[in-house]
Amino acid sequence: MSAPIMLITGASGEIGAATARAAAGAGWDLALNGLVDGPRPDQLAAELATETGRRAEVVLGDVAVEADVLSMFDEVQERFGGLDCL
Questions:
Q1: Among 18, 3, 16, 8, which residue's Cα sits nearest to residue 59?
Q2: Has residue 39 got a pLDDT over 90?
Q3: Phi, psi angle pair for 9, to nearest 5°
Q4: DSSP string covering 62-77, please?
Q5: Most buried among 18, 19, 69, 81, using CB within 10 Å?
Q6: Vertex 73 angle, CA 5 and 16, to 5°
Q7: Helices 42-52/14-25 angle, 10° precision
């Protein structure tokens, strides 16, 4: 059975990272959102994959830009096959 998928926006910040750690620990696979031109959650994704064995991938985009949000959902659909939680 596959794990549920969670998209976490702002995963580069403290609250987003804490949410990601808790979700990975609870068995979620994660799409971690960050800005293209800002702090990126790449290190967090690698840390979670190593420490928890959960799938954690970065999905870049600005949630204040509609086109980025639409692209982000398309990318999550393509890479993970769906989304269970935002």
A1: 8
A2: no
A3: -80, 150
A4: -TTSHHHHHHHHHHHH
A5: 19
A6: 60
A7: 20
Query: Which pair of tokens denotes residue 53?
Result: 């064995």
Whether the CA torsion 57, 61, 10, 28 is positive or negative: it is negative
DSSP string, 12-53: TSHHHHHHHHHHHHTT-EEEEEE-TTS--THHHHHHHHHHH-
Both tokens assigned to 49: 């994959």
Tokens for 73, please give them: 């959902």
DSSP 9: T
Give bridge partners of residue 7 from the DSSP assignment.
31
Share of the chain above pLDDT 90, in %: 86
Mean pLDDT of the chain: 94
